[in-house]
């Protein structure tokens, strides 16, 4: 299974090639191909802007035309900013990503993502070689995505499609190992303490308000998922407030914590 | 209905502020806020790199701290590259976008997207004020997203959520009914009061524990959606606890409530 390659047609600026390499590697893409590059890409500027993705630059290959650059691929998808006068399906990065993943994953096909020159975008003849057009949905009143940002978005969507297809690859859910969630018992211990201290302080003032105000406080503190430690902190806060500068008793930690 | 604002904490490079403005406007975001900017953003470099999004730069506002920058917002979401040792929900841009859209569209709330300095990312104290953390899923072997690219991806996902939400004529008009959500200003008023009272009570005991404990409390209270009334209740609770049987001053309700 080979992730898609990125094909830049006539890239004009070395810095953009560096930025594209960086964008690619962030999302696990490593195969960069250049069609008639108008600049160097092994120089210091490109390397610096790759921010550590030099391997992508080093392995990049240049070709004379798109035919040569795409010789081993099964599908090309052409990224364009503007609609073209061409009968070709137009997809957003979000729509195209699962299709590309499917091409690659289930059929073992190889896919190229095609991006045009910075100033003018792809020529129709290159788009014509593509299976479909990718267009990023943008603010209709201000559409000004640069080359590297277009690569970021398309590569990101591919990576997302991959991550969501392979549950294990998804970011791990943060665990509360060190800091287990509070049990209701712990929370109620805190709420009991709070009620008691508020009662002593005269907070409720009239008996008939007590039930309503207590309920409102319980509701507030029960909506949230606290950890055990946080509930202990809340208890410490209440104890400190009612007993300033005192040696207030700190709630004991349970064994094993 | 106000789209999210973007808050950059201590941005270091003028060019990045320009690129962020461009990224924002591509996806219809216009409210840029800068916390302690370390560079100019009205200069030629920033303007050039905004690629036409000068209006975003011109309307950008600078603040001394995150508290001031977020005074009118209801929710902050903090973008971080690395997992932090903090109990806070971690969401991908894709997961968070529909939630933010929902906050804004159906409840008329105001949301800030928080991004840290280029070199080091956000400080835990700023993350602590946020509702949840946004982390972009990246290649685990090469994770190197720059500031503007992070903004591109989060703004893109918000735009996607907006585009894919089919406008529904039957949808209720967003109303802030009897019990509107608390703004950050209100929450910060409570947190300031709590800090002050805990300081007086000797809760922090040693100066070096103060920052850590304050952060932990801010984190705990910022994770949740309180209503204005609930924040007033919390203030009343603290006032009652420190001044038992006293005629503690009740925070004033705003006119019209």
Please write out the topology.
Two copies of one chain form a homodimer.
Chain A: E1 5-9, H1 14-26, E2 32-35, H2 44-50, H3 54-58, E3 61-63, H4 66-69, E4 75-79, E5 90-91, H5 93-107, E6 111-115, H6 124-127, E7 132-134, H7 147-165, H8 184-201, H9 207-222, H10 228-242
Parallel strand pairs in A: 1-2, 1-6, 2-3, 4-6, 4-7, 5-7
Helix pairs in contact in A: 1-2, 1-7, 5-7, 8-10
Q: Number of DSSP strands of chain A? A: 7
Shape of chain A: elongated
Q: Report the helical percentage of chain A.
A: 40-55%
Q: Tell me about the largest β-sheet of chain A.
A: 7 strands, parallel
Amount of beta strand of chain A:
5-15%
Strand order of the largest sheet of chain A: 3-2-1-6-4-7-5
Radius of gyration of chain A: 29 Å
Separation of the first and last Cα atoms of chain A: 46 Å
- The secondary structure category of chain A is alpha/beta
């Amino acid at each position: 299974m080979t992730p898609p390659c990125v094909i830049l047609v006539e890239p004009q600026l070395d810095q953009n090639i560096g930025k594209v390499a960086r964008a690619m590697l962030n999302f696990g893409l490593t195969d960069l191909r250049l069609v008639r590059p108008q600049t160097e890409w092994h120089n210091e500027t490109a390397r610096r802007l790759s921010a550590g993705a030099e391997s992508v630059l080093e392995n990049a290959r240049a070709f004379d035309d798109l035919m040569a650059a795409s010789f081993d691929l099964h599908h090309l998808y052409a990224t364009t900013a503007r609609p073209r006068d061409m009968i070709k399906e137009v997809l957003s990065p979000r729509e195209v990503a699962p299709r590309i993943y499917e091409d690659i994953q289930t059929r073992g096909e190889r896919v190229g993502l095609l991006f045009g020159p910075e100033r003018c975008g792809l020529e129709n003849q290159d788009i014509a070689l593509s299976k479909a057009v990718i267009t990023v949905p943008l603010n209709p009143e201000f559409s000004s995505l640069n080359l590297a940002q277009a690569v970021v978005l398309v590569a990101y969507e591919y990576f997302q499609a991959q991550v969501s297809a392979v549950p294990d690859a998804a970011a791990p859910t943060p665990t509360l190992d060190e800091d287990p969630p509070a049990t209701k018992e712990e929370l109620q211990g805190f709420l009991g303490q709070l009620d008691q201290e508020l009662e002593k302080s005269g907070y409720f003032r009239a008996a008939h308000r007590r039930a309503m105000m207590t309920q409102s406080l319980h509701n507030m503190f029960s909506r949230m998922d606290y950890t055990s430690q946080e509930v202990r902190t809340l208890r410490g806060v209440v104890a400190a407030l009612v007993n300033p500068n005192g040696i207030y008793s700190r709630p004991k930690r349970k064994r094993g914590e």
